[in-house]
Amino acid sequence: MDIDARTSDRLRHVLASAQRDGRLPSVVAGVTHGGELLWHGAAGTVDGRAEGTAADDDTQYRMGSITKTFVGVCVMRLRDAGALDLTDRFEDHVPGSRIGGASIEQLLSHAAGAQAETAGPWWERTEGGDWDALVASPAEQRFRAGRRFHYSNLGYGALGRLLEVHHQTGWFDVVRTELLEPLGMDRTTPRPAGSAAPGLAVHPFADVLLREPEHDGGAMAPAGQLWTTVRDLARWATFLGGDTGDLLSADTLAEMCEPHHVVDNPGQPWTGAHGLGWQVANVDGVRYAGHGGSMPGFLAGLWVRLSDGTGTVAMANATTSTAMKTLQDDLLAVLDEDAPAAVEPWSASGDAALLELVGTWHWGASTTTAKVVGEHLVLGEPGVGRGSRFARTGDDDWVGLDGYLTGEPLHVVRRADGTVSHIDLASFRYARTPYDPDADIPGGVDGSGWH
């Protein structure tokens, strides 16, 4: 995918319009695809004055809750290394808190029931203490663990402590050595370093500014501490798009992006959910993953379309604005209109040995069609009813990849002469004719046959 001069001009116009209409002192944004930062831009000045310093691709902004995604990936790396299980209680690894009965998975997906914020002063605007002080504040549960989605900054403070206990070092040291350094994200830091935008609040009824405080969040830092640049954040978007640099398996990344708990707002349709560290959105049937971020003086967003890995990132130094999400939607719309993804040509690359499995099959009196698409055997329409793709696990064995049949086994049963008799799919028998008496139908077939 290439960005030509016309598309670049349109993207810059979208960004400039968002800066003006959203009353953002400064804003940076980028679009990614195929492991690359295709375009990036900046608008406004970091101090919000016409004669101020222009923002650029080396200007740091606070990413807020996007920090949680780095913590989540590091926790999943511990799981993949065998150091913990997602069903483990938090207490098994970090004893002594009132949220210890929740599982690690529940903390990752905001389903632990842990309180949303700290019990003390607003942690986002006050200096943070250590883990012991946070636990003593006290840190409690609002709901039974597993009952519902309840976004919890406290829960990610706890996961940061989990990383510290396992690695015997600070949570940011873990993030830096395991993720930032291997990915070349050397402008992502726990406090502002080098060129950095100040956090600003814009008065709701006048064009004047107020500087927001900046501090070390202590034990709450894993919930929203990190600062970064548009280039570094774009690298993290390409990570989510599949270019993980072998730091995380594709299966684990996919697991993190599955919707574990829907975000339930009464009276509204379910369009959002939370995975393991990543937020998930379902917009008109198109699935996105990413995370939003906000801290006093800053807004940020990172979203990737999971079907093709195309992503958008944006950061601004304003406490509030309605422009950020619209900005990312508009950038993606321009990209889709002007620079659609390349269409891969069809070629005859199938396996002729699988022809014995394609065609019409019957389960009871129902009819379905099997076909081979790429490396998958496909029964019916994936995602519709019990339609699913199947991946091969052996000579005559496959495993389901979609919906009801995800993880379920499909076995091809052969006659003594090696020809295919029937398919056993999770105990359901598929035969070439309805209720084929030679296909070992469970319960047998009435001897009088059809009548």
TrEMBL record:
Start and end residues of each DUF7586 domain: 351-432
InterPro entries assigned: AmpC-like (IPR050491), Beta-lactam-related (IPR001466), Beta-lactam/transpept-like (IPR012338), DUF7586 (IPR056008)
Matches recorded under Pfam families: Beta-lactamase, DUF7586
Sequence ranges assigned to domain Beta-lactamase-related in this UniProt record: 14-331
Gene3D superfamilies referenced in this protein's UniProt entry, alphabetically: DD-peptidase/beta-lactamase superfamily
Name of the protein this chain belongs to: Beta-lactamase family protein
